[in-house]
Design goal:
Blueprint: E1 2-7, E2 13-19, E3 29-35, H1 41-67, H2 82-93, H3 100-112, H4 124-137, H5 142-159, H6 187-195, H7 201-213, H8 217-222, E4 228-229, E5 232-238, E6 245-249, H9 252-267, H10 281-294, H11 304-316, H12 321-327, H13 334-338, H14 348-352, H15 367-370
Antiparallel strand pairs: 1-2, 2-3, 4-5, 5-6
Helix pairs in contact: 2-3, 2-5, 3-5, 4-5, 7-9, 7-11
Keywords: DNA recombination, DNA-binding
Family: Belongs to the 'phage' integrase family.
Domain Tyr recombinase: 180-353
């Protein structure tokens, strides 16, 4: 392994480069430099330590080249702390608009409650405990999604030589179906909320906007004016196929909501990049609950019900699953068919009445004939 020297423009420093060849990108920097003419003891000490470091880097690069084509993995390629490996994996593989991988790492840190965990400690039983930690904390598809991303990182670590056998292989991802079905709003209830005052007008405006766009709480909380062009909303959800964000054409109610928000800001001469000024998620849900009750709606409505209602009302109008899935930012129709669907009949009486009924009651049902 050759190391090249290259002075800087001033000539007061010498930088060192790896020499892998003459082609583009084959002379990367080692990140090491020395002073050409050290002026004091500090610079002399720097040069001494830098040359020692350079020898280490040269040795490592030589071993890397010699290991090519063999099953040997140099020790300096390994991270003693699996948490560091996980963090690097997330940094390299995280996709904009998809929070599952980033959140899986955040939950992993909360689970281990320390800054260091050796790969040898990631056992099958450890994986089971982490999966249960997620199942105890979250409902729906969330625990399964987070654990699946953890399995991705462990699988990558196995390929990189950290594990002889993948400890998560036999520990499959699990979802945690909610025992209590979420409520949804019907058409008449949409209209009631539009005309019912709310203690917090920002919360009302944002919730109505979600009802007409299907945005999640986290998305509307971060929504900025730059995401809106005319009557088109550019969401933060990125399509897997095209790599482009999902765009939504705004319903007139949603557009009117934005126009009112903009007028309020202009009236007080405030320039705010965010469309809505919202409290915490818990605080917003409490305000929504009180507002729904004051509208005479006897249902337990939380923020996530707005997204569910958006999907159900579109499906009631025979909008196909693929279109609904796209509008909600899903890559497949699975979530629409499993989660964002009508679980309760809209009108039981009207539904049951669809069964065949004769003009006259049959004789065997005539009570007077039996008496």
């Amino acid at each position: 392994m050759n190391i090249l020297e290259r002075p800087n423009k001033k000539g007061d420093k010498i930088y060192f480069l790896y020499d892998y060849g003459r082609g583009p990108g084959q002379r990367p920097s080692t990140g090491v430099f020395i002073y050409t003419n050290p002026k004091d003891q500090i610079q002399k000490n720097h040069n001494k330590e830098a040359l020692k470091l350079l020898e280490v880097k040269k040795s490592q690069a030589t071993i890397d080249q010699q290991a090519i084509g063999s099953s040997f993995i140099p020790a300096h390629k390994f991270k003693a702390n699996f948490l560091e490996y996980y963090e690097e994996y997330v940094k390299l593989n995280a996709r904009k608009g998809n929070r599952h991988l980033v959140n899986s790492l955040a939950q992993f840190k909360l689970f281990i409650k320390k800054d260091f965990i050796a790969p040898i400690d990631i056992t099958e039983n450890f994986c089971k405990r982490f999966r249960q930690f997620l199942l105890d904390k979250y409902s729906g598809e969330t625990p399964g999604n987070y654990y699946s991303r953890f399995k991705w990182a462990v699988s990558a670590a196995e390929s990189d030589g950290y594990f002889q056998k993948n400890p998560s292989d036999k520990v499959n991802s699990k979802s945690n179906p909610s025992i209590k079905l979420k409520e949804n709003l019907e058409v008449d209830e949409y209209l009631k909320l539009l005309t019912t005052p709310c203690l917090n007008e920002e919360v009302k405006a944002a919730f109505i906007f979600c009802c007409y766009t299907g945005l999640r709480w986290v998305d509307v909380k971060k929504l900025e004016w730059k995401d809106i062009r005319g009557n088109v909303l550019t969401t933060r959800i990125i399509q897997a196929k095209t790599g482009q964000p999902v765009t939504l054409t705004l319903h007139p109610i949603a557009k009117s909501t934005l126009e009112k928000q903009k007028a309020k800001l202009e009236a007080v001469k405030i320039q705010n990049p965010e469309v809505f000024s919202l409290p915490t998620a818990d605080g917003a849900n409490k305000i929504v609950d009180a507002w729904v009750k004051s509208a005479g709606i006897d249902k337990y409505i939380t923020w996530s019900c707005a997204r569910l209602s958006f999907s159900i009302l579109l499906q009631d109008k025979n909008v196909d699953d693929a279109t609904v899935a796209y509008l909600m930012g899903h890559t497949t129709t699975d979530q629409v068919r499993k989660r964002y669907k009508r679980h309760r009949p809209k009108d039981q009486v009207a539904t049951i009445s669809q069964l065949p009924t004769p003009d006259q009651s049959p004789d065997f049902l005539n009570i007077s004939n039996k008496l």
